[in-house]
Amino acid sequence: MWIVNPFYRVLRVDVATRSWNVKEYDVKEERVLGPIDAGVKIHLEEVESWRYDVFDPRNVLLLGCGLFAGSKLFGVHRLVAVFRSPESKVLHVSTMGGAAYKFVGCGAHAVAIEGKARRPTIVVVKGGKEGVEKVEFVELYEDQLWDIFTFYEGYRGAYALTKWIVDNMRDVIERYRARIVAVGPAAFKTIFGALVSIDVDPKSGRLVEGSEDFAARGAPGSVLARAHNVVAIVAGGDWTPPIPEELKDPSKLNELFNKLLGKSFVDTVLSAGKKYRYDPSYGVGGTFGVNYPHYRELLPMFNFNSMYLDKSVRKRLADIIIEKFWKPFKVETFDKNRVWRTCGEPCPLACKKVWRGKKVDYEPFQGFGPLLGIFDLELTTELVDLVDQLGFDAIGTAQIVAWLLEAVYRGLLSPEEIGIGAKPNLDPMTMNLEAWSVNAILARQILLGLVEHKTEVLKIVAENGLRKAAKLLDEKFAERIARTKIRFEDLAIYLPYGDDGYMTPNLYWAPGFIAPIMVTGRYWTNYSATFAEPEEFAKSVCTRALKEYEDDNAGVCRFHRGWFEKIAQKLYELIGIEIDLDEHAKEVYRKFIEYAKKAGYVPRYLESEKAKDLYVTIAREIGVYDWFTKFVQDKDGALKEWWKRFSAIFAEFMGVEPSYVEL
Question: Structure pTM?
Fold first, then answer.
């Protein structure tokens, strides 16, 4: 146990004045246990960012790790972003794997960016043994930045900028073993830009492709770029956070885990993370490897329209996915070779499964694969690589691309209005990979068009996001709405916040992602493909929301949640913190709700017919026929009843008033 009181150290950097200071929060007194707590405190109490526009310089972007960073525990070096989202307009949390392993050496647990730089700026944080030694500001001219984004050393976008930083700041990368977090052009040109981080070999300067990770959901990249004019943060150094010996010595870790869980440390980790390393029941590992044979006909395809199909048709489509999309990955990445990497920190799970040089995860590949009606792994790999280099949020952007393609398919838009050269094929009955492959060409054109603002429609979407753009397009094309009887928003799935905020779901046929809760687009919910009575469902959502917050606030990769959540309380006690974690989690969640109320962006009842149908179809699929009958007889009436009962239990569980949601 620490001799001194545990602290959480935040480096505050004002890029407008080029000033910085370090603040240490007393963990016990101020109840700041990690990056989420620090970010919420800064936004809610210190800068009151809810008073201002999302791209105001007071929308602080905090990037930080948990209190276990620097220890020998696996999976505790996730880098966590806390910010006000340009999409939902409420506080959001996004995370990237492994980046904190080097980042934390900068001398602080977290770096908070505020103010707006006069020119595109790279913030460089250098740490010594005692803490932050120096913060430097490297300016780029705008034309220079866009030249780099266009092409540099075989890369584009965020990858090109990362490589440029490596080549031009080699001494920093080598001396400080620094980690780079960068943005791409999507961060400047859209409201759904990601933070991109690729591990770098400090000696050779080589980008370790396959180790790349992204803090993307909620668009922190757009906040860093547009609110602060910061294009990258480079951080590293010699600082090691105070960590008790029990968590630094592998032999003592084994003693601890044997005592608490009855297994050695490594055996515990491998057992809990079997899915992400290698699951012998499927002969594969990783989210891509396991999810496809597991979910099969429950996979969302053709912009979620697969949920309307008969199960026999979905099974035929799933067979195609397994044979043409999943099997090539299994053969090359597991049967023939095992190209597995970590996210940049030592970890036996090696969850980054690499296929032909590209890291393959379920959601990006699902989004730019079957969700768009693409069942060719090579075509999807090319699209995901483009998305990553441009710096898009892959999950949210895939749904925007799918939405635009369906709008053309349904006759709401012409191909020319979104800058594509043909009509898409979103007919699931085609059963022909070559016929569907046109969608890959069109998706590429849309992605480039969003960054270039190629057409008026794409500019509207890029600058406003899905929900507000849908409303604007409803007005612009009112005659088409009247003719087709379809509104633009009816082709998309999202949870509304306030007048124009929204969040799209993760890529599962799961009502938990669009239930009336505060933090969506993340796994802070029950995300299984299931349906239940609202009271039962609300309790399961609350339980997962609190545990997922605890994982993120500790900087723990959720692939390690299987062991961490069992002993989290004990681990905090080892560093001198005795606190009821679940009660603390509720306290912080209430602050998310308080922030949303002050900002005027609490969750609202669903306005998209497809979003409502997600509930209807999953109730039918699971066989909850009482609710399915209610939905068929009066969809809105039954769904509002479900929402009202859900929100009552959710509010009671969290200790707030049911007014946190607008019905």
Answer: 0.97
